[in-house]
Write a structure and sequence with these properties.
Layout (H helix, E strand, L loop, with lengths): L5 H19 L3 H19 L6 E3 L11 H9 L3 E9 L4 E6 L4 E3 L5 E3 L4 E2 L6 E5 L2 E2 L5 E2 L5 H5 L13 E5 L20 E4 L2 E4 L5
Parallel strand pairs: 1-2, 1-7, 7-10, 10-11
Antiparallel strand pairs: 2-3, 3-6, 4-5, 8-9, 11-12
């Protein structure tokens, strides 16, 4: 990943701060309702099925909760995976099957203590946390670069058709446009409490 230019880095840092404040301001009751509605939208649009490999995330307190979606995926017979950070210095992560206990990593994010790692390309749907997004599928994350590094192969869209990357967010996290960096991997869709936004990535 090439470093961002100073102006783009400044713009994205300011936008990240604004959007994190919006996300933090969502009331607790609305958070619970939003998580349930997002799970319902996913169920209607993506129709999870037995044996499907579904990657979720262990949410921070300010992020959209995925518990209702995880419950639906389990009921549908899907296999669930969570990210596991392998190298902090290299910003490298893989996905591990959810089995047994979870433990916090250096960022305080829960990840599987055990469970086999799978090739990233073998996943079917990856539900991704985000700070902000636009209708083109550009995602603004927390700035660590883990997701962009992990899914960089999807920039070659003419070769790879999966996994599909689906952002999960509150509607207030949407903006009209996010300045893209060359390494940004676009989302195929974003699901908020208001519905599914198809991002038109060409996949």
């Amino acid at each position: 990943m090439a470093p961002l230019g100073p102006e783009l880095a400044r713009v994205r840092k300011a936008l990240r701060a604004t959007l994190r404040a919006r996300r933090l301001a969502v009331p607790a009751a609305e958070r619970v309702s939003a998580a349930r509605r997002v799970a319902a939208h996913v169920r209607r649009r993506f129709g999870l099925r037995p044996g499907q490999r579904i990657a979720l995330y262990a949410p921070l307190a300010e992020e959209l909760d995925v518990a209702p979606l995880a419950a639906h995926a389990r009921a549908a017979g899907a296999e669930l995976y969570l990210p596991r950070i392998l190298s902090r210095r290299e910003r490298r992560m893989r996905f591990a099957r959810v089995r047994g206990a979870l433990r916090p990593n250096h960022l305080g994010i829960l990840e599987p203590a055990d469970g086999e790692l799978v090739p990233t390309r073998s996943l079917d749907l990856v539900f991704v946390p985000l700070v902000g997004f636009d209708a083109s599928g550009t995602r603004l994350g927390m700035g660590g670069g883990y997701y962009d590094r992990t899914f960089a192969f999807l920039l070659l869209r003419h070769k790879w058709r999966r996994p599909k990357l689906i952002g999960l967010a509150f509607a207030v996290q949407r903006v009209s446009a996010i300045a893209r960096a060359a390494h940004d991997v676009r989302l195929d869709a974003v699901v908020t409490e208001e519905g599914v936004i198809e991002c038109g990535t060409g996949c």
